[in-house]
Amino acid sequence: MKINYILFLLTAAFCYPSITVAKIIEAGSPDKKNVITIETDNQVSYSLSRNGTKILDTCPLSLTVGNDTWGTDKCRKVTRKSVSEKVEFIVPRKYKETVDNYNQVELIYKDYKIEFRVYNDGVAYRFVSTANNKQPVKKESVSFCFGQDHTSYTLLTDQLQNWFEQDYTVKPINALPKDSFSVAPVMVEVDKYKVLLAEANLYNYPGMYLQPSQESFHGIFANYPDKEVPYEGDNKIYVSTRKDYLIPNCGKRVFPWRVTGIFDNASSILQSELIYLLSEEKEQTDDYTWVKPGKVLWDWWNDRNIYHINFKSGINT
């Protein structure tokens, strides 16, 4: 009986390789130019290339929920799928619709999964909580590791509350001040390619800033506000103290996408719908047909000298 059982296990291992999860997984974009290599041993990490040129070196990722660090335990299953479908813009712009075309890899764990999508113009990943976890999200580890120094375009700041109005700094990553961090997106020139580091589908979660460290950028996030105080003589409120977590309740939800856009030239960035395609419509039943493309004025907020309106104008919202 024992011999038969051993023979069964050996047969299953050879005939049904999906029982064991591969430690190295590769996936390519629909046009086969972008290739992502995912490692699942010990801690999940990934690297990225385009047309054989290394874009990102080994980039570890994790999410700390309560006392558990997601991305460091054993992967139970790997699934793949390919998608190509038309998507109609809520508000038409130059075009009425676009095509959502990508190849996806899912790493499935006990109470969560990690999704990777490979597009023709970039790669994105995110965590997804598949159980109603009541623990706080304490930390997220996001890394964009290039392996060598490259010219970067950053909007630097030294505070987690700001107005996103600074000038961009154009310097090699190693030359950036290590006590500052950049608003996303950040652009990095890797050989002839323009690489955009960004996020998408950000809801009920702190926005990602990117801090330089040698030849890398690492994500930093503002912890959940504890106490807020008004700024004297202004209409702004500042956070004076913060909690020791990012959000108080993980819940059953999707987390923001961590995005690496890869473009052959700068003008291709303007044509990309990558961030739009990765973002979800939260209110599917709302009517946006009244919104038309065109110009807008902000006199209702900036100036306080418009008349014959049915609301109070000025800085009051």
Automatic annotation (TrEMBL):
Gene3D superfamilies: 2.70.98.10. Residues 1-22 form the signal peptide. This is Glycoside hydrolase family 97 protein. It holds the Pfam family GH97_N. Residues 29-280 form the Glycosyl-hydrolase 97 N-terminal domain. The lineage of its organism: Bacteria, Pseudomonadati, Bacteroidota, Bacteroidia, Bacteroidales. Keywords: Calcium, Hydrolase, Signal. One of its GO terms (molecular function) is carbohydrate binding.
